[in-house]
Amino acid sequence: MILYLVRHGIAVDPNDPKSPPEPERPLTAKGVQKTRAAALGLQALGVKPDVLITSPYVRAAQTAEIFAEALGFAPPKIRTHDALKPAGNPADILKEVNRLRAKEVMCFGHAPQLDLMIAHVAGAHGVFTALKKAGVACLEHSAGHGRWEILWILTPKMLRQLAD
Description:
The structure is a single chain. The protein contains five helices and six strands; from the N terminus they run E-H-E-H-E-H-E-H-E-E-H. By secondary structure, the chain is an alpha/beta fold. The chain has one domain (2-163): Phosphoglycerate mutase-like (Rossmann fold). Helix 2 (58-71) links the parallel strand 2 (51-54) and strand 3 (79-80).
């Protein structure tokens, strides 16, 4: 199984006095533009997920919709899961991912939770990555070995360059 972990794009600053509550903070116009360009980079790599799962927070759901559109995935089929919220438990989302038995799954969430998930699957004692906004990590689970392997991590800038 291939697992893609995608951090949401650039969202409204939580310190902005006009910012809505945390779960409702949307992507900015610049965030939408840069996220779309990053998603097109994944399209250029030929990524075709079977399942998309997102945090219910607006900025993650918007990011999932942008990636779905770029990758030819029907947005209404995007699932939500509370384990992808900022305080979610990485083990809970991994249980859900394993239960799906899909070939390729893409999850959309937040920092530092996605970095905690990468550390968890790598067996590390602490976080050693820092996914950028609209950045993607690709992991592979080998059923024979029962282990996860980090295949690559791409910044949004790298993804945008792939799309050019």
